[in-house]
Design goal:
Layout (H helix, E strand, L loop, with lengths): L1 H4 L7 E6 L4 E4 L15 E6 L2 E6 L18 E6 L4 E10 L5 E12 L18 E8 L12 E7 L11 E6 L7 E10 L4 E13 L6 E2 L5 E7 L15 E6 L2 E8 L1 E2 L2 E12 L2 E4 L18 E3 L2 E10 L6 E11 L4 H9 L6 E10 L1
Parallel strand pairs: 13-17, 14-23
Antiparallel strand pairs: 1-18, 2-12, 3-6, 4-5, 5-12, 6-11, 7-10, 7-12, 8-9, 8-11, 15-16, 16-21, 18-19, 18-22, 20-21, 22-23
Length: 360
């Protein structure tokens, strides 16, 4: 029963590293092919030709004139002397937090009279003359064009211009936060020569810029006692980072904290359930409904740091007066020091917000 949850003696400790602006940086290996080869990439060819690296203005196998790479010395390009299919891919772990965007520059020179969108990526069957770029499930077959395609970013269509300059393609990878996906460039040619170039492949993750920031605690600071409520923005020194939202019989607890701009912090929640006693909260997922992405512990809302802590039925809670302390300490602070902070006896650095609620 949920009422037993509030009698459990457990520890809820979370470690956070946040800054006022953190950029995870480039996630693609060798996206400009400036190693002069396909280091970081996997190439799968069937039939004639290759998805290889080129420089200059001559295609590497058939020696047709093509555009030079748009940046640097090298680009990847398909080329052939007969029908074939050519795939270039790389797997990317999309960070759980922040904004992650894919971009690339592609070049097309189809020497057939039109594009033909075949039902697959097989050059050994019916007419098939196409290029496509997909975000894939890495567990799917590398040539899958069905359920394994999570997002089609670009695909040639009949009637498209046969020759393009290098042109940009892009996609927001937000739907895949916390997942590993596959960037796949695929070209099929069984009608005539087809040079497809790829360069400047990039996946950038940018963490949000925080308008609300605080320093890691350097002295004891008891910020105050508040009544929980619904909120989205605040001054953490005068308002509250904890909220209780009530909808019918469901009570949801949420925690907002500022970005800690100069290091790690540990966050502890301490529940004082009068008349039943005082408890540390953690491992609530054993009894309550936690979001699947609770690890490492946070999601972002706008530029503040936010997580849903728990959702439970009010009718299952023992009546009483409740006090919740949200305690922030420098990372690695000993458990014995946390006990002293809870009892009010510690001179160690901390911030403490306290919240009171009478239930039901």
């Amino acid at each position: 029963m949920v009422s037993k949850t509030l009698k459990a003696v457990v520890v809820f400790c979370m470690v956070v590293l946040l800054s006022s602006m953190a950029i995870a940086g480039e996630l693609v290996i060798n996206g400009g092919f400036e190693t002069g080869d396909t280091t970081g990439w996997t190439v799968v060819n069937a039939g004639s030709g290759n998805f290889g690296v080129m420089s200059g203005t001559t295609s590497p196998i058939s020696f047709y004139t093509v555009l030079a790479p748009p940046a640097g010395t090298y680009a990847a390009m398909t080329d052939q002397t007969g029908g074939g299919s050519h795939i270039l891919y790389q797997d990317i772990a999309v960070p759980l937090h922040g904004t992650t965007n894919f971009s690339a520059t592609i070049y097309l020179h189809n020497r057939n009279t039109d594009y033909i969108t075949g039902a697959d990526l097989n050059a050994g069957g019916p007419p098939n003359q196409q290029f496509r770029m997909d975000i894939m499930n890495p567990m799917a077959a590398v040539d899958d064009v069905g359920s394994g395609v999570l997002m089609n970013v670009y695909q040639t269509q009949p009637g498209d211009p046969l020759i393009s300059g290098y042109m940009p393609i892009a996609a927001n990878l937000a739907p895949f936060a916390g997942q590993t996906v596959r960037m796949r460039f695929a070209e099929v040619d069984n009608m005539f020569y087809f040079q497809a170039g790829v360069d400047e492949v990039s996946v950038q993750n940018v963490q949000p810029s925080c308008s609300i920031t605080m320093n890691v605690p350097t002295s004891p600071t008891n910020i105050g006692t508040f009544a929980p409520g619904i909120f989205m923005s605040y001054d953490p020194m005068v308002a509250r980072p904890f909220g209780l939202e009530e909808a019918g019989d469901i009570l949801t607890g949420r925690l907002w904290l500022p970005c800690w701009r100069n290091g790690h912090v540990d966050v502890h929640l301490v529940l004082d359930e009068s008349p039943y006693g005082q408890y540390m909260l953690s491992e609530l997922h054993q009894w309550l409904s936690f979001p699947a992405n609770i690890q490492p512990w946070m999601t972002y809302t706008d530029d503040d740091v936010y997580t849903e802590l728990f959702s439970l039925q009010k009718s299952g809670i023992l009546p009483g007066n409740y006090k919740l302390d949200v305690i922030v300490v420098p990372s690695g602070t000993a458990a014995s020091t946390i006990d002293q902070i809870v009892s009010g006896a510690a001179a160690a650095p901390y911030y403490k917000w306290s919240f009171t609620e009478t239930l039901p």
